[in-house]
Design goal:
By secondary structure, this protein is mainly alpha-helical. The chain has helices spanning 2-21, 34-45, 50-62, 69-78, 82-95, 98-110, 114-134. It has a single domain (34-134), classed as Leucine-rich Repeat Variant (Alpha Horseshoe). Helix 5 (82-95) packs antiparallel against helix 6 and helix 5 runs parallel beside helix 7 (114-134).
């Protein structure tokens, strides 16, 4: 009987010591901030992949990011893709910053693509209408 008590006590002792030294192995990291999200979208608008660029531009507009105004203006002014320029104009309209609205207004006159000019005109007219309604 004594020969079975020693292993049982040893196992019980090891089990108890394991419980007392156990720690959570899951580490909680800091949460992703809004700033982190905006920075990722800003990286996306400078990417060569058209889908990523357009998607990032859209979400910057949804978040009304003031930090996105200049990069979006650059896309509207000089990107080769009409789709990217249209999305930049939409996001600038959503953000509502005067600099961005001015860029949309300039695109009505100077963009090389007729569709971009027409859509920019729609965005600008919507902005003007909303501005009048707020008065």
């Amino acid at each position: 009987m004594l020969k079975y008590k020693f292993p049982a006590v040893l196992i019980l002792l090891l089990f108890c010591s394991e419980l007392s030294f156990a720690q959570d192995s899951i580490k909680v990291t800091s949460r992703i901030t809004q700033e982190d999200i905006i920075l990722n979208y800003l990286a996306g608008v400078s990417h060569d992949n058209l889908g990523l660029k357009v998607s990032a531009a859209y979400y910057l507009g949804e978040r009304k990011s003031q930090k996105a105004v200049i990069p979006l203006m650059n896309i509207l002014k000089s990107d080769e893709s009409p789709e990217a320029r249209i999305m930049a104009a939409l996001s600038l309209y959503k953000i509502g910053d005067e600099r961005g609205i001015f860029a949309v207004q300039r695109a009505i006159e100077y963009d090389k693509n007729e569709q971009v000019r027409k859509i920019c005109n729609i965005f600008f007219q919507m902005y003007e209408t909303e501005k009048e309604l707020k008065k």
